[in-house]
Write the structure tokens for this entry.
Amino acid sequence: MMAPQDFIPQIAQWVGTLDETFPGAQVKPYFAHWEVVHLLSLALLGGSSILLNLRLMGYGLTDAPPSEVRRGVAPWLHLGVFGIIFTGVLIGASNPDRLYTSEAFTAKMLCLVAALVLTYGVSLPTARSNGRLGPVAMIAGFVGLAIWGLGLAVFGTGKLINPGLWHVVTAAALVGLFVTRGLTRIIYLVGMGGLIIAQYVNTHIIIKPDDYARLDPTNKIYFGVFLAWILGAVIVQVITAGRGATGGPATRLFAFAALLVWVTTAAAGRWIAFA
């Protein structure tokens, strides 16, 4: 178990009083209102991150250099980050018991830290340098990937929450469709179509929908196959694209990770309700 209550049980009594004191007690009657602001902040953050990191991958707003794209999206990115953290603290204070007992919350916090490291340690400074990945950004990138990997491990092994990783795979698949080109895109699409059909036949026709003992391991296998296919296509595209005026393969791969880590953070947050 990796819920906060499992590794910091000493604060259980304090957590139980958060919704009865400031600011939890004041926020609780307006929980839904703050949740809307939280989601709007997440949408603002997500859009900014997509524009920035796609440009670092060599796609999207290619008419402008990465530094110019950064100048345009950075204020909105900062606002989105501030919004999710500020409203997240208030929402958490008004509903502390659910978060304290949730493995999804642990995954979300780990991925949030990773997202901040990859965004502020890699994407923004690299975009400022028009794609040049400096040594500090490289170190920050590997640190962010390590923390993200830990968050994915918690997300993937948590009870009743691991199906949420399909959201991350779906996002990765859409990014892969956007960035692949030529023959790589055709092969990618054909492979994805075949995998989707095969999974449907296996999990809806060959295996009965209520046969969970067989469905769960089968879906986990397909999860791994989908992930390998998507990452393989993206890596092939990134490597074959070579080094351009706005960075090489490492820049593009870190940008891909910086984009998906925010998706993971959002997905883990949505699955807190299912814990």
Observations:
- Residues 11 and 151 are 22 Å apart (CA to CA).
- Residues 4-274 form one domain.
